[in-house]
Backbone:
């Protein structure tokens, strides 16, 4: 049975006036289950508060829109309260407790992508809430709460029953929340829109890689990530992950054409991708993209903290390393054709500007 690789949009799971939580379903995007990958989005309105929670999966969070505050509590560590804004990537290992708050007029939107191989449901995150109508306090009887936290009956009942919200609530404007601490941000987040570029091709595109060098926590998460920006009508070289990693891609901005070629040289997908789409390319399949005139940007996670890719075109393409005689024999072409083929794309690596 062939897998459906077509890109999909997220669907709302829960939410109210404080905001909403969206998720991609493995039943609609089977590669999530096949690859043990989860993907979800949190959207908070002004004064929206995502209640403290932890997940059964390690993941990378990426701020798609807006600005806000995140609370991050690593196991047996103090709470880190950090300011977050569009372009921020945050690594969230197993066991991390997080909360998210938006006090601005602009909606705060955070993307989550991660590894569900140790989770309860392949291809889906399961969150465990500390408070709220589905929080852990509601599952314990009052006498357990009293004894565990050394409180009287009235306090125990308040802890269990006062917060009626589920997952996301809207706080009163006068509620005081912790202010972010600049020193807490170090090592916790990297802004991909402001970070030094790992590759920058004039009139074509650029990329910022998220790895153990610029955000060491991704080593604990076991994932790498990148933000790729392709200029209008530019092309991304056909290539594949050469270390058996899966690449999960979310289209951040713009639109463009995408083609995927799989086993036996078979075309497996041609589609138009646009902002909000999520797609997964199977291991070792070759993928290429061409941006529409307005450009194309995407954020990807890769299921290894220091990913490696093989590109099949451009100045660093694998063809350049193969001897001329082998290419002639492999393509069954004369020397003149091989020389012409090799002479092309000697200056462009990874991204190709629009044709003249």
Residues:
């Amino acid at each position: 049975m062939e897998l459906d690789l077509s890109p999909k949009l997220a669907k709302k799971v829960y939410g109210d006036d404080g905001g909403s939580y969206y998720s991609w379903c493995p039943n609609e995007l089977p590669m999530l289950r096949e690859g043990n990958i989860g993907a979800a989005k949190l959207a908070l309105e002004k004064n929206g508060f995502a209640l403290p929670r932890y997940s059964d999966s390690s993941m990378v969070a990426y701020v798609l829109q807006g600005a806000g505050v995140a609370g991050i509590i690593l196991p047996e560590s103090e709470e880190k309260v950090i300011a977050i804004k569009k372009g921020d990537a945050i690594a969230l290992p197993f066991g991390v407790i997080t909360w998210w708050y938006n006090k601005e007029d602009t909606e705060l939107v955070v993307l989550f992508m991660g590894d569900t191989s140790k989770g309860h449901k392949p291809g889906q995150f399961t969150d465990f809430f500390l408070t709220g109508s589905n929080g852990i306090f509601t599952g314990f009887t009052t006498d357990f709460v009293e004894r565990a936290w050394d409180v009287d009956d009235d306090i125990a009942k308040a802890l269990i029953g006062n917060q009626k919200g589920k997952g996301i609530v809207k706080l009163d404007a006068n509620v005081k929340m912790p202010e972010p601490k600049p020193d807490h941000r170090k090592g916790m987040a990297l802004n991909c829109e402001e970070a030094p570029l790992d590759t920058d091709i004039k009139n074509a595109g650029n990329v910022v890689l998220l790895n153990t060098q610029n955000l060491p926590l991704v080593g604990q998460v076991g994932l790498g990530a990148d933000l790729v920006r392709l200029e209008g009508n530019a092309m991304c070289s056909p290539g594949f992950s050469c270390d058996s990693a899966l690449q999960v891609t979310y289209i951040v901005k713009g639109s463009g054409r995408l083609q995927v070629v799989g086993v036996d040289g078979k075309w497996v997908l041609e589609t138009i991708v646009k902002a909000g789409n999520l797609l997964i390319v199977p291991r070792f399949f070759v993928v290429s993209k061409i941006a529409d005139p307005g450009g194309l940007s995407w954020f990807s996670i890769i299921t290894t903290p220091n990913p490696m890719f093989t590109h099949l075109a451009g100045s660093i393409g694998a063809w350049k390393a193969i001897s001329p005689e082998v290419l002639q024999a492999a393509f069954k072409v004369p020397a003149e054709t091989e020389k012409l083929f090799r002479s092309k794309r000697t200056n462009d690596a990874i991204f190709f500007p629009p044709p003249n």
Q: What stands out?
A: Residues 8-132+167-185 form a domain with the Jelly Rolls fold (CATH 2.60.120.10). DSSP finds seven helices and 23 strands in the chain. The helical segments are 31-35, 142-149, 153-161, 182-185, 218-221, 324-331, 335-343. The chain has two domains: 8-132+167-185, 192-309.
